[in-house]
Structure formats: structure tokens, C-alpha cells
Amino acid sequence: MAGRILIIGACGQIGTELTLKLREIHGNDQVVASDIREGAEELMQSGPFEILNATDEAHIKEIVEKYKVKEVYLMAAMLSATAEKAPMKAWDLNMDSLFHILNLAKDGKIDKIFWPSSIAVFGPSTPKDDTPQTTIMEPTTVYGISKQTGERWCEYYFRKFGVDVRSIRYPGIISYKTLPGGGTTDYAIEIFHEAIKNSQYTSFLAKDAALPMMYMDDAIKATVDIMEAPAEKIKVRSSYNLAAISFTPEILAEEIKKHIKDFEISYEPDFRQNIAESWPSSIDDSSAREDWGWTHDFDLDRMTTTMLDGVGKTLKEKA
Ligand code: AKB
């Protein structure tokens, strides 16, 4: 590759595993990790790292020049639940960082951008099952509004200035290496930790709150694949629907019970239940499958066994 890759928000749940994967593919010194704070040891020690605030345009430019960066993955964002507590801060972070990167590409300083969107772009008036790629989008969360607006700007920069920006609407991403921060779908990770530690979990979503989810390896594969696809295959320049599995807390608890017989779940829905209710239950991702060959590998059974194994090992290492 001519020029390095920069990951902004590299220490978060997806950023950490994405950085490690990109270092494996392109070489450690080719992938610069950056975040507002330091992250996992493996990430910090395997390649270059810079402390970077994603809203600091001048510092982003400096790092892009210093490392001769040509591709940026902008993973920094405030997620749905946290954003509801600090709406203006979330808006500033989620939008300013995107404009800084889009403008760098517009000015010819970088060649390609990955920017994640989310199922949060949809709202209560969106068809709930098999939500189509193009449909009604009236998000009711700050996070969703920022992602929907971001999608519009990505498409605008592509059409108007030819900026090669690529995006997918992540569902809830399930993983064990780095904990998520402030999402509505986070229960599907907490449940594994609590099941192993205490055989008990109190869900902050109701038992029938069905949401689209995906195991981390599939999310990373999608991210790498969309970025490697030839430009002419990327027909959607706002953001692609992406799907793997959909389940409710009750279904996930049943799946865990197959491995931990005495596991029990109870339900105390909080404000995140309202957010979950406004999102789709399942997603139609046929455009991603047709345009750039997306397929997922992890079903509910494989995801559950992989999580129980991974969380179990992590907790043992910490003990
Ligand atoms: C969240 O719950 O906010 C995120 C998302 C679906 O984008 N995991």
C-alpha cells in the first residue's frame, strides 16, 4: 500500500480488533493507532500509537502528514446510551470528527475513508423486520441522528467531490477482548461475563427486545472486505445494511443455559429499552451481499460458544 493507515478511536471495542487485524494484513508499522487514551497492551506494543482527540483537526492533519497516511478508519464516536446523557458533546464528537476526515480527503491529503454507521439510523416509523436498505429513517436518539446525518454527508462528499468513503451500518457487535462503552446492545456482552461469574444476569432490556447482532470477527471481516472491494462495486455511498444474527435477551439466555445449566436471567428494563424499541429487529442486507460479496460466519450457537470460551479465559487470566 502506498501510504499508511490511521485508525482514530483505535482503543475502543471495534477499533482494537480492527487495528490488530489491519496490522496483521499490512504490517505493524503501516498501521498507526490513535485514541484519546491508551488501550490494550497488545495494541500499544504492536505498532505506532498517538494520543489524539478526534475533534482536533490540526492534530489529525499533523499525524496524517507525519506518517504519510492515505487511509483513515474513523472509529471514535459516542454510542447510543452515553449520547443520550450528553447530547451536544455527542453531536460535536460524532460530526466534527467526520467533517475533519471528509475534508482531508476532499483536499487530496488522504485517498480513502472508512466511517461506521449503525442500525441506530432507523427509528420507530421504519419497518421493523427485514429492514430494507432504503426505507423511512426517523431516528429518535442523538446517536442515530448523528449517524443518519453523517451518512448524508458521506454520500454528498462522494457525489460532489469524489471522496472514496465507505460505510456499514453495524448492528450490536459482540466480543470479549475489549469491552464496549455506552451502547444499547451491550447487554449481549455483559450477560456472558455475569453468566460465568455469577450464573445470574439482570437485563436492562425486556425479554422480547429483538435486535440485530453480529460477532466481532464478522464485523472485522466486513470492514476489511468493504475497504478492499474495487470502488465500482461500492454502489451505496451512504452506508450499507449489514446483518448476521437477531435475537432477544430471552433467546440468548436459553442459548447460554445450554452450557451453564443453572444460569438465570431477570429483567429490569431502563431507558435503553426505549432506544431498543425504536430500532429494527432484523435487517435485510442483500445489497451488501450482492455488491461486494458480504457473508457472515457466526450464527447464534457459534457466537455463544466462542464468547463463553473467550470470556472464561479472560476472567481466569485476570483472577
Ligand atoms: C449501540 O448500541 O449504541 C451500538 C450500535 C448498535 O451502534 N452498539
TrEMBL record:
Query: Which GO MF terms are attached to this record?
Result: L-threonine 3-dehydrogenase activity
Per its UniProt record, what PANTHER family does this chain match?
A: L-THREONINE 3-DEHYDROGENASE (PTHR42687), L-THREONINE 3-DEHYDROGENASE, MITOCHONDRIAL (PTHR42687:SF1)
Family annotation (Gene3D superfamilies): NAD(P)-binding Rossmann-like Domain
User: What InterPro entries does the entry give?
Assistant: Epimerase_deHydtase, NAD(P)-bd_dom_sf, NAD(P)_epim/dehydratase
Q: Which family does it belong to?
A: Belongs to the NAD(P)-dependent epimerase/dehydratase family.
Output one GO BP term: L-threonine catabolic process
Sequence ranges assigned to domain NAD-dependent epimerase/dehydratase in this UniProt record: 5-242
Please identify the protein, giving its name as recorded.
Nucleoside-diphosphate-sugar epimerase
Q: Which Pfam families match?
A: Epimerase
Domain of life of the native organism:
Bacteria
